[in-house]
Amino acid sequence: MIKQRLIELLTEAASQAQQLGKLPAVTLLDIVVEHPQNAEYGDYASSLPLKLARATGLSPLTIANDIVGLMAPTPEVASIAVAPPGFINFTLKDDWLTQQVDSILMAGDAYGNIVLGEGSRVQIEFVSVNPTGPLHVGHGRGAILGSTLANVLAAAGYKVEKEYYINDAGSQIVAFNRSLYARYQQCLGVDAEMPADGYFGSYMVDLAKEVIAEEGDRFLSLPEKEAVPQLGQIGSDKVIEQVRNDLERLGVSFDVWFSERSLYDNGQYQRAISLLHQGGYIAEKEGATWFVSTALGEDKDNVVVRGDGSPTYFASDIAYHYNKFLERKFDKVINIWGADHQGHVSRMKAVVGALGISPERLGVIISQMVTLLRGEELVRISKRSGDIITLREVVEEVGSDACRFFFLSRSADSQMDFDLELAKKESVDNPVYYVQYAHARIASILRLAQEREIDCRDGDVCLLNTEPELVLIRKMLLLPEIVEIVAHTLEPHHLTYYAQDLATVFHSFYKQCRVVSEDKALTKARLKLVEAAKTVLAKALHLMGMTAPDKM
Question: What's the pTM?
Answer without folding.
Answer: 0.94
